[in-house]
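### Sample
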Amino acid sequence: MERIWHALEPALLPLAEPPQPPGWNHAHMSELLGTAVRRPAAVLVGVREGVQPRVLLTVRTAHLPSHAGQVAFPGGGSDPDDRDAIATALRESKEEIGLDPGLVSPLGFLDVFETISGYCVTPVVARIAEHARLTPAPDEVAEVFEVPLGFFLEPGNLRRYTMEFRGHQRPMVEFLHGGHRIWGATAAMMLNLLQRMGRA
């Protein structure tokens, strides 16, 4: 399905021009978090090569202090030694799911996104070699699974709803696939991808 790659790559922010804060949802997050400084973070929106390109996702373990049990992209907070967002996303992906950075080809970025937990996240979109092996770190990741990119591109699979949080009505999106509920920040970042591709 090379046409998916041809549609994906032009929609991304180029590697030479990393996105900068604030996040595209900054106004809404400011209502909830105020003006507190957001901590830098990055995630890997990895798409495995193959006849049917597939997005890599994880299920966080139930004992983690934040977002326990939720579906997420591999990633996390930036370390002082990380050169940039790509370095953060690759380091975290290796730590969380054993992904060899040598099998990852960054393509570009999505827009920066601010989370309710106080992070300013840079999503790094990348191709992952079809033969890449994944080994979840049991203290962080309960499961790794893959969803065809084509599933997200079908308009009927995007579900919209409203959730009340801290007295505010928050517009939300979610995807349901194979018994997994993909919602929150992960779904919002996928929505950003779809919007950049002209699919939402």
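The first helix runs from residue 2 to 8. This sample (CoA pyrophosphatase) is used throughout the tutorial notebook.
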